[in-house]
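We treat protein structure as text, and this decision shapes the records that our systems exchange. We quote a single record here, exactly as it is kept in our systems:
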Amino acid sequence: MRHTKLKGVAALAAVLSLVAACGQGGSTGADNSTAQQSGDAAFGTSGPAPEGDPRSGGSVRFAYAAEPVSVDSANCGYSMSWMACTAVYGSLVTFDPRTLEYGPGLAESVESEDGKAWTITLRPDLTFTDGTPLDAEAVAFNWERAKDPVNRNAARQTAQSMEWEVVDERTLEVSLPEPNFQFQTLLYTGLGMIGSPTAIREKGQDFALEPVGAGPFKLDRWSRGTEMSFVRNDDYWDAPRPYLDELVIVTIQQEQQRANALNSGDVDINVTETRRTIDELIAAGRSEAHMATLVGAGMRFNFASGPTTDRRIREAIGHAVDLAAIREAVYSADPGPGIFGVENSALFDPDAKLPEHDPVRAQELIDEYRAENGGEEVVVEYQTMAGVSQMMEEAQMLKAQIDAIEGLSLDVVELDPATYSTRGLAGDYETGMANMGVTLDPAMFYDRMHTDGGENTQSYSNEDFDRAIESARATPDPGEQVEHYKEAVRHYVGDVAALPWTPATTYWFHNGDIGGITPGYNYYLRPELLWRSE
Protein backbone atom coordinates (compact mmCIF):
# COMPACT_ATOMS: atom_id res chain seq x y z
CA MET A 1 0.00 0.00 0.00
CA ARG A 2 1.28 3.44 -0.84
CA HIS A 3 1.89 5.59 2.23
CA THR A 4 0.61 9.15 1.85
CA LYS A 5 2.32 11.37 4.40
CA LEU A 6 -0.14 14.22 4.06
CA LYS A 7 -2.61 12.01 5.87
CA GLY A 8 -0.30 9.62 7.68
CA VAL A 9 0.27 11.71 10.79
CA ALA A 10 -3.29 11.46 12.04
CA ALA A 11 -2.35 8.63 14.40
CA LEU A 12 0.47 10.71 15.85
CA ALA A 13 -2.03 13.50 16.38
CA ALA A 14 -4.15 11.19 18.51
CA VAL A 15 -1.15 10.33 20.66
CA LEU A 16 0.02 13.92 21.12
CA SER A 17 -3.40 15.49 21.63
CA LEU A 18 -3.31 14.83 25.34
CA VAL A 19 -2.13 18.40 25.91
CA ALA A 20 -4.53 20.17 28.25
CA ALA A 21 -6.81 22.66 26.56
CA CYS A 22 -5.41 25.55 28.57
CA GLY A 23 -1.92 24.23 29.18
CA GLN A 24 -0.25 26.15 31.99
CA GLY A 25 -1.80 29.46 31.12
CA GLY A 26 -4.80 28.83 33.35
CA SER A 27 -8.52 28.95 32.70
CA THR A 28 -9.96 31.74 30.64
CA GLY A 29 -12.70 32.12 33.19
CA ALA A 30 -15.39 32.23 30.50
CA ASP A 31 -18.40 29.94 30.44
CA ASN A 32 -18.58 29.71 26.65
CA SER A 33 -15.06 28.32 26.20
CA THR A 34 -14.81 25.50 23.70
CA ALA A 35 -12.09 23.00 22.84
CA GLN A 36 -12.02 20.93 19.69
CA GLN A 37 -12.74 17.27 20.35
CA SER A 38 -11.36 15.64 17.20
CA GLY A 39 -7.87 15.10 18.57
CA ASP A 40 -7.08 18.77 19.11
CA ALA A 41 -7.75 19.36 22.80
CA ALA A 42 -4.79 21.73 22.86
CA PHE A 43 -6.90 24.40 21.11
CA GLY A 44 -9.78 26.37 22.61
CA THR A 45 -11.72 29.61 22.32
CA SER A 46 -13.89 31.88 24.42
CA GLY A 47 -16.04 34.89 23.73
CA PRO A 48 -18.04 35.91 20.65
CA ALA A 49 -16.69 35.15 17.19
CA PRO A 50 -18.18 35.33 13.70
CA GLU A 51 -20.31 32.40 12.61
CA GLY A 52 -21.23 31.05 9.23
CA ASP A 53 -19.28 31.14 5.99
CA PRO A 54 -16.19 33.34 5.82
CA ARG A 55 -16.77 36.83 4.46
CA SER A 56 -14.42 38.28 1.86
CA GLY A 57 -13.00 41.80 2.13
CA GLY A 58 -11.64 44.08 4.77
CA SER A 59 -8.35 44.38 6.57
CA VAL A 60 -6.88 42.83 9.72
CA ARG A 61 -4.06 44.34 11.77
CA PHE A 62 -2.09 41.67 13.66
CA ALA A 63 0.22 42.88 16.47
CA TYR A 64 3.40 41.21 17.69
CA ALA A 65 6.57 42.32 19.48
CA ALA A 66 9.07 41.93 16.64
CA GLU A 67 9.36 41.85 12.86
CA PRO A 68 11.31 39.66 10.42
CA VAL A 69 14.82 40.49 9.34
CA SER A 70 14.16 39.15 5.84
CA VAL A 71 11.41 37.58 3.76
CA ASP A 72 13.74 35.88 1.30
CA SER A 73 12.33 32.41 0.61
CA ALA A 74 15.80 30.91 1.16
CA ASN A 75 16.03 31.85 4.82
CA CYS A 76 12.51 32.40 6.07
CA GLY A 77 9.79 30.10 7.25
CA TYR A 78 10.93 30.03 10.86
CA SER A 79 10.66 32.16 13.98
CA MET A 80 9.66 35.81 13.49
CA SER A 81 9.49 35.50 9.70
CA TRP A 82 6.92 32.70 9.45
CA MET A 83 3.64 34.62 9.07
CA ALA A 84 5.08 37.20 6.68
CA CYS A 85 6.73 34.49 4.58
CA THR A 86 3.61 32.32 4.50
CA ALA A 87 1.58 35.32 3.36
CA VAL A 88 3.93 35.82 0.39
CA TYR A 89 4.84 32.23 -0.51
CA GLY A 90 2.34 29.84 1.03
CA SER A 91 4.06 26.47 1.45
CA LEU A 92 4.29 23.13 -0.29
CA VAL A 93 2.21 21.55 2.46
CA THR A 94 0.03 22.94 5.24
CA PHE A 95 0.06 21.98 8.90
CA ASP A 96 -2.61 22.20 11.58
CA PRO A 97 -1.04 22.18 15.08
CA ARG A 98 -4.50 21.48 16.53
CA THR A 99 -4.54 18.02 14.96
CA LEU A 100 -0.89 17.57 13.93
CA GLU A 101 -2.06 16.80 10.41
CA TYR A 102 -0.26 17.89 7.27
CA GLY A 103 -2.37 18.70 4.26
CA PRO A 104 -1.91 19.73 0.64
CA GLY A 105 -0.61 23.20 -0.16
CA LEU A 106 1.23 24.14 -3.32
CA ALA A 107 1.81 20.40 -3.57
CA GLU A 108 -1.37 18.42 -4.05
CA SER A 109 0.32 15.21 -2.85
CA VAL A 110 3.47 14.09 -1.03
CA GLU A 111 3.94 10.33 -0.96
CA SER A 112 6.40 7.72 0.28
CA GLU A 113 6.37 4.01 1.02
CA ASP A 114 9.65 3.71 2.93
CA GLY A 115 10.45 7.23 4.20
CA LYS A 116 13.44 7.50 1.82
CA ALA A 117 11.93 7.81 -1.66
CA TRP A 118 9.39 10.61 -1.92
CA THR A 119 7.21 11.81 -4.78
CA ILE A 120 6.02 15.42 -4.70
CA THR A 121 3.29 16.42 -7.15
CA LEU A 122 2.50 20.10 -7.55
CA ARG A 123 -0.90 21.52 -8.33
CA PRO A 124 -1.46 22.29 -12.00
CA ASP A 125 -1.05 25.77 -13.45
CA LEU A 126 0.56 27.44 -10.43
CA THR A 127 2.01 30.90 -11.11
CA PHE A 128 4.02 33.43 -9.15
CA THR A 129 2.67 36.94 -8.80
CA ASP A 130 5.11 38.08 -11.51
CA GLY A 131 3.30 35.77 -13.97
CA THR A 132 6.07 33.15 -14.23
CA PRO A 133 5.29 29.45 -13.61
CA LEU A 134 5.74 27.78 -10.23
CA ASP A 135 6.74 24.38 -11.55
CA ALA A 136 9.06 21.57 -10.50
CA GLU A 137 12.07 23.43 -11.90
CA ALA A 138 11.23 26.43 -9.69
CA VAL A 139 11.11 24.17 -6.62
CA ALA A 140 14.46 22.64 -7.56
CA PHE A 141 15.94 26.14 -8.03
CA ASN A 142 14.85 27.12 -4.51
CA TRP A 143 16.23 23.91 -3.02
CA GLU A 144 19.59 24.63 -4.63
CA ARG A 145 19.58 27.99 -2.86
CA ALA A 146 18.74 26.21 0.41
CA LYS A 147 21.97 24.22 0.09
CA ASP A 148 24.12 27.37 0.10
CA PRO A 149 25.42 28.16 3.64
CA VAL A 150 25.31 31.86 2.81
CA ASN A 151 21.51 31.75 2.80
CA ARG A 152 21.29 30.22 6.32
CA ASN A 153 18.38 27.97 5.47
CA ALA A 154 17.46 25.91 8.54
CA ALA A 155 16.97 22.83 6.32
CA ARG A 156 20.39 23.22 4.69
CA GLN A 157 21.81 19.90 5.94
CA THR A 158 18.83 17.97 4.59
CA ALA A 159 18.97 19.85 1.27
CA GLN A 160 22.67 19.05 0.94
CA SER A 161 22.21 15.36 1.71
CA MET A 162 19.12 14.63 -0.38
CA GLU A 163 18.96 14.10 -4.13
CA TRP A 164 16.10 15.05 -6.40
CA GLU A 165 15.03 14.73 -10.00
CA VAL A 166 12.57 16.86 -11.92
CA VAL A 167 10.39 14.23 -13.58
CA ASP A 168 8.05 16.63 -15.35
CA GLU A 169 6.72 20.14 -14.83
CA ARG A 170 4.64 19.06 -11.82
CA THR A 171 6.62 16.19 -10.30
CA LEU A 172 9.81 15.80 -8.31
CA GLU A 173 11.30 12.53 -7.08
CA VAL A 174 13.31 12.96 -3.87
CA SER A 175 15.77 10.47 -2.40
CA LEU A 176 16.88 10.79 1.24
CA PRO A 177 19.98 9.02 2.60
CA GLU A 178 18.00 7.63 5.56
CA PRO A 179 14.30 7.05 6.21
CA ASN A 180 12.54 10.15 7.48
CA PHE A 181 8.81 9.77 7.88
CA GLN A 182 8.67 13.40 9.04
CA PHE A 183 10.16 14.89 5.89
CA GLN A 184 6.95 16.84 5.33
CA THR A 185 7.91 19.06 8.29
CA LEU A 186 10.57 20.65 6.08
CA LEU A 187 8.08 21.10 3.25
CA TYR A 188 6.11 23.32 5.62
CA THR A 189 9.10 25.43 6.67
CA GLY A 190 12.64 25.60 5.27
CA LEU A 191 12.07 23.75 1.99
CA GLY A 192 8.42 24.66 1.59
CA MET A 193 8.47 28.35 0.69
CA ILE A 194 9.17 28.84 -3.01
CA GLY A 195 10.24 32.15 -4.52
CA SER A 196 10.13 33.18 -8.17
CA PRO A 197 13.47 32.22 -9.80
CA THR A 198 13.05 35.09 -12.27
CA ALA A 199 12.58 37.65 -9.51
CA ILE A 200 15.43 36.19 -7.44
CA ARG A 201 17.82 36.51 -10.38
CA GLU A 202 16.65 40.01 -11.29
CA LYS A 203 16.44 41.53 -7.81
CA GLY A 204 19.51 39.97 -6.22
CA GLN A 205 19.85 41.07 -2.58
CA ASP A 206 16.76 43.28 -2.90
CA PHE A 207 14.63 40.14 -3.15
CA ALA A 208 14.75 39.86 0.67
CA LEU A 209 12.77 43.12 0.84
CA GLU A 210 10.82 42.79 -2.42
CA PRO A 211 9.76 39.12 -2.45
CA VAL A 212 7.74 37.42 -5.16
CA GLY A 213 5.89 34.21 -4.41
CA ALA A 214 2.65 32.40 -5.15
CA GLY A 215 1.08 32.80 -1.72
CA PRO A 216 -2.22 34.35 -0.69
CA PHE A 217 -0.82 37.88 -0.41
CA LYS A 218 1.74 40.23 -1.95
CA LEU A 219 4.00 42.46 0.14
CA ASP A 220 2.82 46.00 -0.59
CA ARG A 221 4.92 48.11 1.78
CA TRP A 222 7.27 47.63 4.70
CA SER A 223 7.94 50.41 7.20
CA ARG A 224 10.80 48.85 9.14
CA GLY A 225 10.14 48.65 12.87
CA THR A 226 6.51 49.69 12.43
CA GLU A 227 4.40 47.52 10.11
CA MET A 228 4.27 45.33 7.02
CA SER A 229 1.28 45.58 4.70
CA PHE A 230 0.21 42.70 2.45
CA VAL A 231 -2.49 42.95 -0.22
CA ARG A 232 -4.60 40.16 -1.62
CA ASN A 233 -3.22 38.00 -4.44
CA ASP A 234 -6.25 37.85 -6.72
CA ASP A 235 -4.73 34.93 -8.63
CA TYR A 236 -4.14 32.74 -5.58
CA TRP A 237 -4.74 29.08 -6.40
CA ASP A 238 -7.08 28.42 -3.46
CA ALA A 239 -9.97 30.81 -4.23
CA PRO A 240 -11.95 32.27 -2.54
CA ARG A 241 -9.01 32.46 -0.14
CA PRO A 242 -7.51 34.68 1.04
CA TYR A 243 -10.58 36.32 2.46
CA LEU A 244 -8.93 39.59 3.44
CA ASP A 245 -8.10 42.41 1.07
CA GLU A 246 -5.23 43.41 3.33
CA LEU A 247 -3.20 41.93 6.17
CA VAL A 248 -1.03 44.25 8.25
CA ILE A 249 1.56 42.87 10.68
CA VAL A 250 2.19 45.59 13.26
CA THR A 251 5.30 45.72 15.45
CA ILE A 252 4.60 46.90 19.02
CA GLN A 253 7.35 45.87 21.41
CA GLN A 254 5.68 46.77 24.72
CA GLU A 255 3.24 44.20 26.12
CA GLN A 256 0.89 46.78 27.65
CA GLN A 257 0.91 48.93 24.52
CA ARG A 258 -0.21 45.97 22.42
CA ALA A 259 -3.09 45.33 24.81
CA ASN A 260 -4.01 49.02 24.73
CA ALA A 261 -3.90 49.00 20.94
CA LEU A 262 -6.39 46.15 20.84
CA ASN A 263 -8.72 47.83 23.33
CA SER A 264 -8.62 51.08 21.36
CA GLY A 265 -9.18 49.37 18.01
CA ASP A 266 -5.78 50.29 16.60
CA VAL A 267 -5.08 46.58 16.04
CA ASP A 268 -7.45 43.68 15.51
CA ILE A 269 -5.44 40.74 16.94
CA ASN A 270 -2.99 40.77 19.83
CA VAL A 271 -0.71 37.87 20.81
CA THR A 272 0.25 37.23 24.43
CA GLU A 273 1.35 34.56 26.90
CA THR A 274 1.25 36.84 29.94
CA ARG A 275 -1.36 35.98 32.55
CA ARG A 276 -1.99 39.55 33.66
CA THR A 277 -2.60 40.64 30.05
CA ILE A 278 -4.85 37.63 29.51
CA ASP A 279 -6.89 38.49 32.60
CA GLU A 280 -7.04 42.16 31.64
CA LEU A 281 -8.30 41.48 28.12
CA ILE A 282 -10.84 38.89 29.26
CA ALA A 283 -12.13 41.36 31.87
CA ALA A 284 -12.42 43.93 29.08
CA GLY A 285 -14.70 41.54 27.19
CA ARG A 286 -12.27 40.57 24.45
CA SER A 287 -12.62 37.26 22.64
CA GLU A 288 -9.73 34.82 22.38
CA ALA A 289 -8.36 31.64 20.91
CA HIS A 290 -5.57 29.80 22.66
CA MET A 291 -3.17 27.00 21.90
CA ALA A 292 -1.22 24.87 24.37
CA THR A 293 2.11 23.66 23.02
CA LEU A 294 4.91 21.27 23.96
CA VAL A 295 7.33 23.53 25.80
CA GLY A 296 7.69 27.21 26.58
CA ALA A 297 10.56 29.60 25.91
CA GLY A 298 13.48 30.45 28.15
CA MET A 299 17.26 30.65 28.35
CA ARG A 300 19.35 28.61 25.94
CA PHE A 301 23.10 28.03 26.23
CA ASN A 302 25.78 28.08 23.55
CA PHE A 303 27.94 24.95 23.53
CA ALA A 304 30.56 26.34 21.14
CA SER A 305 31.86 29.52 22.76
CA GLY A 306 32.14 31.31 26.07
CA PRO A 307 31.99 29.95 29.63
CA THR A 308 28.71 28.10 28.96
CA THR A 309 30.71 25.43 27.12
CA ASP A 310 31.50 24.08 30.61
CA ARG A 311 28.66 22.07 32.07
CA ARG A 312 29.35 23.42 35.58
CA ILE A 313 28.55 26.97 34.44
CA ARG A 314 25.28 25.89 32.84
CA GLU A 315 24.34 23.85 35.90
CA ALA A 316 25.30 26.68 38.27
CA ILE A 317 23.07 29.08 36.34
CA GLY A 318 20.32 26.46 36.41
CA HIS A 319 20.50 26.31 40.20
CA ALA A 320 20.85 30.10 40.58
CA VAL A 321 17.75 30.90 38.52
CA ASP A 322 14.37 30.70 40.23
CA LEU A 323 12.11 29.68 37.34
CA ALA A 324 8.95 29.78 39.45
CA ALA A 325 9.66 33.35 40.56
CA ILE A 326 10.11 34.50 36.95
CA ARG A 327 6.86 32.82 35.89
CA GLU A 328 4.99 34.51 38.73
CA ALA A 329 6.53 37.98 38.38
CA VAL A 330 6.62 38.32 34.59
CA TYR A 331 3.72 36.12 33.50
CA SER A 332 1.53 36.00 36.64
CA ALA A 333 1.59 32.22 36.18
CA ASP A 334 1.73 29.30 38.60
CA PRO A 335 5.17 27.85 39.47
CA GLY A 336 4.94 25.10 36.85
CA PRO A 337 6.02 21.47 37.24
CA GLY A 338 9.80 22.04 36.97
CA ILE A 339 9.83 19.71 33.97
CA PHE A 340 10.98 20.51 30.44
CA GLY A 341 7.64 19.74 28.74
CA VAL A 342 4.05 20.77 29.30
CA GLU A 343 2.21 18.86 31.99
CA ASN A 344 -0.40 16.40 30.61
CA SER A 345 1.15 16.32 27.14
CA ALA A 346 2.32 13.06 25.60
CA LEU A 347 5.92 14.30 25.75
CA PHE A 348 5.70 15.18 29.43
CA ASP A 349 8.26 13.04 31.28
CA PRO A 350 8.77 13.30 35.07
CA ASP A 351 12.40 12.27 34.53
CA ALA A 352 13.09 15.35 32.38
CA LYS A 353 13.57 17.52 35.46
CA LEU A 354 15.03 21.00 35.25
CA PRO A 355 17.62 22.04 37.86
CA GLU A 356 16.04 22.98 41.18
CA HIS A 357 16.56 26.45 42.61
CA ASP A 358 19.57 25.83 44.88
CA PRO A 359 21.93 28.82 45.29
CA VAL A 360 24.17 26.82 47.64
CA ARG A 361 24.83 24.21 44.95
CA ALA A 362 25.32 26.98 42.39
CA GLN A 363 27.99 28.54 44.59
CA GLU A 364 29.78 25.19 44.99
CA LEU A 365 29.93 24.71 41.23
CA ILE A 366 31.24 28.22 40.59
CA ASP A 367 33.86 27.89 43.34
CA GLU A 368 35.04 24.61 41.80
CA TYR A 369 35.23 26.10 38.32
CA ARG A 370 37.09 29.23 39.45
CA ALA A 371 39.58 27.20 41.47
CA GLU A 372 40.53 25.36 38.29
CA ASN A 373 40.56 28.44 36.05
CA GLY A 374 42.63 31.07 37.81
CA GLY A 375 39.98 32.41 40.19
CA GLU A 376 38.66 35.06 37.80
CA GLU A 377 35.03 36.13 37.98
CA VAL A 378 32.85 34.28 35.48
CA VAL A 379 30.94 36.71 33.28
CA VAL A 380 28.23 35.29 31.03
CA GLU A 381 26.68 37.38 28.30
CA TYR A 382 22.90 37.27 27.97
CA GLN A 383 21.28 38.74 24.86
CA THR A 384 17.80 40.19 24.96
CA MET A 385 15.69 42.35 22.68
CA ALA A 386 15.68 46.02 23.62
CA GLY A 387 12.30 47.56 24.28
CA VAL A 388 10.32 44.31 24.62
CA SER A 389 8.87 44.64 28.10
CA GLN A 390 8.62 40.95 29.03
CA MET A 391 12.10 40.16 27.82
CA MET A 392 13.52 43.11 29.72
CA GLU A 393 11.76 42.07 32.93
CA GLU A 394 13.11 38.55 32.54
CA ALA A 395 16.63 39.83 31.95
CA GLN A 396 16.51 42.00 35.09
CA MET A 397 15.35 39.09 37.25
CA LEU A 398 17.93 36.74 35.75
CA LYS A 399 20.70 39.22 36.45
CA ALA A 400 19.67 39.71 40.07
CA GLN A 401 19.45 35.96 40.71
CA ILE A 402 22.70 35.07 38.94
CA ASP A 403 24.71 38.00 40.32
CA ALA A 404 23.80 36.79 43.82
CA ILE A 405 26.29 33.95 43.30
CA GLU A 406 29.76 35.16 44.28
CA GLY A 407 32.14 35.08 41.33
CA LEU A 408 29.34 34.78 38.74
CA SER A 409 27.67 37.65 36.93
CA LEU A 410 25.32 38.12 33.99
CA ASP A 411 26.12 40.78 31.40
CA VAL A 412 22.77 41.75 29.85
CA VAL A 413 23.20 42.96 26.27
CA GLU A 414 20.21 44.77 24.77
CA LEU A 415 19.97 44.46 20.99
CA ASP A 416 17.59 45.93 18.42
CA PRO A 417 15.28 43.28 16.89
CA ALA A 418 17.23 42.97 13.63
CA THR A 419 20.60 42.51 15.36
CA TYR A 420 19.08 40.19 17.94
CA SER A 421 17.65 37.96 15.24
CA THR A 422 20.76 38.06 13.05
CA ARG A 423 23.12 37.18 15.88
CA GLY A 424 20.78 34.49 17.13
CA LEU A 425 20.53 32.82 13.73
CA ALA A 426 24.33 32.96 13.41
CA GLY A 427 24.86 31.35 16.84
CA ASP A 428 26.65 34.51 17.94
CA TYR A 429 25.66 34.47 21.63
CA GLU A 430 26.56 32.83 24.94
CA THR A 431 23.06 32.78 26.38
CA GLY A 432 19.81 34.37 25.33
CA MET A 433 16.04 34.09 25.30
CA ALA A 434 14.69 31.61 22.77
CA ASN A 435 11.84 29.30 21.87
CA MET A 436 12.70 25.63 22.20
CA GLY A 437 10.23 23.91 19.96
CA VAL A 438 6.98 25.58 20.96
CA THR A 439 5.15 24.15 17.98
CA LEU A 440 3.15 21.00 18.63
CA ASP A 441 5.12 19.00 16.05
CA PRO A 442 8.11 17.40 17.82
CA ALA A 443 9.64 16.62 14.42
CA MET A 444 10.97 20.17 14.51
CA PHE A 445 13.19 19.26 17.48
CA TYR A 446 15.59 17.86 14.89
CA ASP A 447 16.15 21.27 13.32
CA ARG A 448 16.72 22.98 16.65
CA MET A 449 18.71 20.44 18.65
CA HIS A 450 20.25 17.68 16.49
CA THR A 451 23.98 18.01 15.77
CA ASP A 452 23.18 18.50 12.09
CA GLY A 453 20.01 20.54 12.64
CA GLY A 454 19.93 23.64 10.47
CA GLU A 455 18.43 25.73 13.28
CA ASN A 456 20.74 24.34 15.99
CA THR A 457 22.34 27.69 16.75
CA GLN A 458 23.41 26.38 20.18
CA SER A 459 25.91 23.99 18.54
CA TYR A 460 24.39 21.38 20.85
CA SER A 461 25.74 17.91 20.17
CA ASN A 462 25.00 14.66 21.97
CA GLU A 463 25.27 11.29 20.21
CA ASP A 464 22.54 9.73 22.37
CA PHE A 465 20.19 12.63 21.66
CA ASP A 466 20.92 12.40 17.94
CA ARG A 467 20.33 8.65 17.93
CA ALA A 468 16.94 9.05 19.63
CA ILE A 469 15.84 11.78 17.21
CA GLU A 470 17.00 9.75 14.22
CA SER A 471 15.06 6.74 15.52
CA ALA A 472 11.93 8.90 15.79
CA ARG A 473 12.30 9.95 12.16
CA ALA A 474 12.96 6.40 10.97
CA THR A 475 9.75 4.81 12.26
CA PRO A 476 6.22 5.34 10.94
CA ASP A 477 4.77 4.17 14.28
CA PRO A 478 3.48 7.20 16.24
CA GLY A 479 3.80 5.54 19.64
CA GLU A 480 7.43 4.68 18.97
CA GLN A 481 8.08 8.20 17.73
CA VAL A 482 6.82 9.68 21.01
CA GLU A 483 9.00 7.38 23.11
CA HIS A 484 12.09 8.27 21.09
CA TYR A 485 11.32 11.99 21.46
CA LYS A 486 10.93 11.61 25.21
CA GLU A 487 14.31 9.89 25.38
CA ALA A 488 15.88 12.71 23.37
CA VAL A 489 14.41 15.35 25.69
CA ARG A 490 15.87 13.54 28.72
CA HIS A 491 19.34 13.81 27.18
CA TYR A 492 18.83 17.49 26.33
CA VAL A 493 17.70 18.31 29.86
CA GLY A 494 20.47 16.18 31.34
CA ASP A 495 23.02 18.34 29.53
CA VAL A 496 21.42 21.51 31.00
CA ALA A 497 21.08 22.84 27.47
CA ALA A 498 18.17 25.19 28.21
CA LEU A 499 15.93 26.50 30.98
CA PRO A 500 12.36 27.06 29.75
CA TRP A 501 10.09 29.04 32.05
CA THR A 502 7.38 30.75 30.03
CA PRO A 503 3.82 29.40 30.13
CA ALA A 504 3.34 27.17 27.10
CA THR A 505 -0.01 28.57 26.01
CA THR A 506 -0.35 31.29 23.39
CA TYR A 507 -3.44 33.50 23.28
CA TRP A 508 -4.75 35.48 20.32
CA PHE A 509 -7.20 38.17 21.44
CA HIS A 510 -9.63 40.04 19.20
CA ASN A 511 -12.77 42.13 19.47
CA GLY A 512 -15.24 39.42 18.45
CA ASP A 513 -15.20 40.23 14.75
CA ILE A 514 -12.34 38.04 13.51
CA GLY A 515 -12.92 34.55 12.13
CA GLY A 516 -10.60 31.85 10.85
CA ILE A 517 -8.08 32.09 13.70
CA THR A 518 -5.95 29.04 13.00
CA PRO A 519 -2.51 28.53 14.60
CA GLY A 520 0.28 28.10 12.10
CA TYR A 521 3.68 28.29 13.77
CA ASN A 522 4.75 29.55 17.20
CA TYR A 523 2.87 32.81 17.83
CA TYR A 524 1.57 33.20 14.30
CA LEU A 525 -1.66 32.41 12.44
CA ARG A 526 -2.50 31.05 9.00
CA PRO A 527 -2.98 34.35 7.08
CA GLU A 528 -5.10 32.93 4.25
CA LEU A 529 -7.80 31.73 6.68
CA LEU A 530 -8.39 35.02 8.54
CA TRP A 531 -11.58 36.95 7.84
CA ARG A 532 -13.66 39.62 9.53
CA SER A 533 -17.38 39.98 9.94
CA GLU A 534 -17.65 43.60 8.92
